[in-house]
Design brief:
The protein is an alpha+beta fold. 39% of the residues lie in helices and 15% in strands. The strands form 3 sheets. It has a 5-stranded antiparallel β-sheet. The chain has a 3-stranded antiparallel β-sheet with strand order 6-8-9, covered by helices on one side. A two-stranded antiparallel ribbon has the order 7-10. It comes from Nonomuraea helvata.
Amino acid sequence: MEISLKAEAAGVADPWPRYFADRGHPGARRIGAGVEGVVYGLGDGQVAKVWTGRPPTELTRQVYADVAQHRLPFATPEIFQVQEHEGVVVTYERELPGVPMRGDSAHEKQERELPAHHGDALLAVLRGLASVPGTDAMRQLTVQGDDRPLWQGHNRFQDALAALVVRAATRHGSALAVHVPDFSAGVERTLDTLRSLPDAPVTAIHGDLVPPNIHIDDAGRPVAVLDFGFYTTAGDPAFEAAVTAAVWDMYGPYAGEHTAELTRLFARELGHAPAALTAYQAVYALTTYDLFGMGESDGHFRWCAERLRRNLVFSAQAP
């Protein structure tokens, strides 16, 4: 009997364990769900993801393989097989160890003092990813919300980002300008700073190292990094550090303090120029502000507007 993908919505028991059992995985069980889809544990170090969001492409699979071939101190996703059933993509992937470092700041309140082991874990992840050279497949990826590969027509990461900022500001910049004073001049200041940054190593960029995307073991050490794709590309490792400092705590009562603290930590321990980190944080806000909603009713939009108002490069404030 054919499994209906509408069964669960109609109140019928989850059909996917049977689907996997029919394909040689009798112990399949649902272990998690997110914006991308539902994950099932299959045993033998393997999981399956039933995609409800944008499914991975062959290019995504290649990027996963490019990262996984390096001996990192933590595991990363690897897609072994792709199937399609009733129009739904199913991927079979490496099972990643550990548990999320903590919940997302939109749902879990963070304390004022950042735990020292969190900083250590973030530094380990940033150093690990910065050791993976950028590849052609990474350069061909499109940042979510955009209409072309980030590197298309560019040889420098900073120039590619500058072009992305122009496209993103053109999309709905007028809506952001309502909430951000001197918006057009701020965009130009950001572009000028971005284009003036020196060349940097081109390495793997995850682009979305929020707490749930880093898994740790009982000792607090990072053992897995997951959910590549949102802003994954090849580029300056300082961009990864800047974005991580900004998104680690986005919505908590001490978010601004945490961003400043992590930015200082990454500048000191990883040798990134503070001005570059600040410029990259402005770029992230300028290129993601409209991905989930428009105006003050959307939390991410509000966060981006607030980050730009406080950004020293965008707003031309003296450090």
